[in-house]
Amino acid sequence: MTSSRQTEVRISASNIPVAGKVDATFAVVGTPNCGKSTLFNRLTGLKQRIGNYPGVTVERHVGIFKHAGQSFELVDLPGTHGLSAHSLEERIAVDVIFGRMSGTRSPDGVIAVVDATNLYQGLFLLQQLAELELPMVVALTMADAADEAGISIDTEELSKALGGVTICTVVATSGQGLGKLRDAIADLPAAAAPHIGTVWPELHRAAEVLAARAPQPIRIAEVSRLLIDGAIDAKDPVLAQLGEDSSEALRKARDELFGIEPPLAHEARVRYQWVRDKLQAVQKQAPRFANWRSRITGFFNQPVPGTIGLFVVMAIVFQAVFAWATPVMDLIDAATVALGSLVTSQMGEGALASLISDGIIAGVGSVLIFLPQIMILFLFIILLEDSGYLARAAYLLDRAMRMVGLSGQSIIPMISSFACAVPGIMATRVIPNRRDRIATILAAPFMTCSARLPIYALLIAAFVPAQKVGFMNLQGLVMFGLYMFGIIAGVLTALLMRKTALRGPKPSFALMLPEFRRPNLQTVAIQLLGRVRVFLYRAGTVIFAVAVIVWLLAYYPRLDVDSAVVTEQQLAGQTLTVENVAAARQLEQSWLGRMGRFVEPVFEPLGWDWRVSSAVIAGFPAREVVVAVLGTVYAVGDDADDATLSGRLKAAKRDDGTPVFTFPMVVGLLIFYACCLQCAATIAVIRRETNSWRWPIFAWVYMTGIGYFGALLCYQLL
Amino acid sequence: MKCNPDTMASLKRGQKAVISAVDAADPLVQRLMTLGLVEGALIERGCAAIGGDPVEYRLFGSGISLRKEQARSFSVADISVA
């Protein structure tokens, strides 16, 4: 926003609303968990765009609704209980409704969506929307659930209570009632604004008095909102519109209205009194009898069965992500390799062929490999969320999470990060408190992600003896230990952050617990596709770029192959192919190899030689690259067979003849990998979710630092 | 105001009650009021999570979970047996 003192107004291109061929813009507003998104998807189909509101990470869903020859723009707003904003999402919704959001058109009408089974909270929102005096239509969703619960709603009475708006009962999942709703929406531009009368006469009067001061006409509803929850801050845009020196008038009006009672409390009392009065006339409740479904949910709502059920569900998800994804991942891997060799065979040797097969195909392949895991994970998360189960999980685990300074809602992102931190961090959106959210984002990369497995497996197989300890295998035990190490490190990090940099009020916890619902498959599919698109675009661009760069560093400068072979005397007697020798020598004198030599002194206290250092550096964009680079460096070739590579690692010697991979060094290396943040995709997603560079840089420095010192301590002390 | 020892936090599972007074000093409590927890509202205490906290309550057909420290701000009366 520009202040009135500036003479030049600059609007970036992205802030100019696209003047498409729409007849009107409507805001779709509703309470959370009422099936609004399903309804929105049904009305707009796939003709919707997902973006971001300017400057924040809140998603913006806009779609086109066509009916009766007309075309309307629908803006799906975040669910909100009322017009006093308690979270970032709700603030955005209110800004859009009042036409204050740059880049989004001021709505010409409102499509209000509330749950028919929860008219009590719904009416709180509906009365405020009716007071906006914009043409409005009300959609009562979950009509089938209401019928089943014995709730009957008198839509005539309801319409009267809200000042004459059209009421449509719908079942969003099946489409029942949608025809009437579509007609009603198409009629909105011609519809009269509702006249709800005064729910709260004193507020209305005070708002009118204040509004009279304004030189330009101003909406009464905005002034009412200012009276209740606006800060007496001269920079407040609404206050500024009221004219000079209105702060005093505002303060006086508030004192008169509320006295010492908190304004929000007074608002709640007055409005819910109205709600209870109207509900008497509008809703009748028949006696309810328990059926098998309510008995089951009743059983699982109890603490012990509920918690056990939760662990079972988490185990299933975990297993599914690891096991089910593997066949598809192998397929993608094979396809990548096949494509790569196809390119090499068609294009021969040469920079371009290598760039395409070793750089681009291998690079893009390493991103696509994640896709099956991410899709499965997101599918589960979307199903759990849409069915209402995730809210219950957060509620059950809240106590445990509170001990580390987080709230129950952090548990799902942290679990997701075991597969891959990228979707895990994206899943932190459900956490309303920003400090909690950042603490969770910082803890997530510590969870042993699937990319760490190849390195762990390689090092454990090579250096941990396969002996029995009790009934467990020592190798398995070490792997389990590494997993626990990750969890503990992550949790301690969150705790530490919450006590220092992210210190703040203890996270509150008040959750609406929605009833269990059957998720709508079409909605799930649309959400899933949306997430996949975002992942491919963001992670793909970053990793793609990095893969090309790493390729460049390893390819140049070129070594003359013949001379490498001729001078390779120390390999006499060993059965290595010419290509492997050439590859190893090429790497040694490439930019990457030179970088390895250059940083060798830094990593010497950790017990690493230049080869290990180059492999680690190459792995910084994406951990998995390390195994391949280690293979090349130790002259076994790119597609290393583990047994051979293990043997090579065990036999590796420094220039002075001492072995490189000693026990302390290996432990240090494992610790390094458990801690360091070697994943460009994770950094990119942290940047996106926190909307600044501060946190990804901090996470990288912090985690790599801990990894370094951990490895240092291990090597020096053991 | 008479000191009412019975609050939402002291209800037992299955008990119904009417909210009689709300201590609205805490902004978190004000937030809960906007969700419908005001004087005159009829609530029913449901189950709690392991450890007794947070607790689920039913309010006019929807479920809401609060921690005990917030529940203590809501005094109740007309408590009926489960």
List the helices and strands and how they pair.
The complex is a heterodimer of chains A (about 725) and B (about 80).
Chain A (H helix, E strand, L loop, with lengths): L23 E7 L5 H9 L3 E5 L6 E9 L2 E7 L11 H10 L11 E7 L3 H12 L5 E6 L1 H6 L2 E3 L1 H7 L4 E4 L8 H9 L14 H12 L7 H10 L7 H5 L4 H13 L4 H20 E3 L6 H10 L1 H45 L3 H18 L2 H16 L2 H14 L8 H6 L4 H6 L7 H10 L9 H11 L4 E2 L2 E2 H26 L10 E4 L7 H35 L5 H7 L10 H12 L1 H13 L6 H9 L6 H9 L8 H10 L11 H13 L4 H11 L3 H24 L1
Parallel strand pairs in A: 1-4, 1-5, 5-6, 6-8
Antiparallel strand pairs in A: 2-3, 3-4, 7-9, 10-11
Chain B lengths: L15 E7 L4 H8 L7 E7 L6 E5 L2 E5 L1 H4 L2 E7 L2
Antiparallel strand pairs in B: 1-2, 1-5, 2-3, 3-4
How would you explain this protein's 3D organization?
- The complex is a heterodimer of chains A (718) and B (82).
- Chain A has 31 helices and 12 strands.
- With 718 residues, chain A is α/β, with parallel strands linked by helices.
- Among the domains of chain A are: 22-190, 3-Layer(aba) Sandwich (Rossmann fold); 201-285, Helix Hairpins (Orthogonal Bundle).
- In chain A, strands 2-3-4-1-5-6-8 form a 7-stranded mixed β-sheet, with helices on both faces. In chain A, strands 7-9 form a two-stranded antiparallel sheet.
- In chain A, helix 13 packs across helix 16 (389-402), helix 20 runs antiparallel to helix 29 and helix 23 (561-567) crosses helix 24 (578-589).
- In chain A, 42% of the residues are buried.
- The model of chain A is unreliable at 1-19 and 636-642 (pLDDT under 50).
- Chain B has 82 residues and is mostly beta strands.
- Chain B has one domain (8-80): SH3 type barrels.
- Chain B is built from 2 helices and 5 strands.
- Chain B has helices at residues 27-34, 68-71; strands spanning 16-22, 42-48, 55-59, 62-66, 74-80.
- Chain B has a 5-stranded antiparallel β-sheet.
- In chain B, a hairpin with a 2-residue loop joins strand 3 (55-59) and strand 4.
- Chain B starts with 15 loop residues before the first strand and ends with a strand.
- The mean pLDDT of chain B is 84.
- Chains A and B meet through helix 3, helix 11, helix 13, helix 16 and strand 12 of A and helix 1, strand 2 and strand 4 of B.
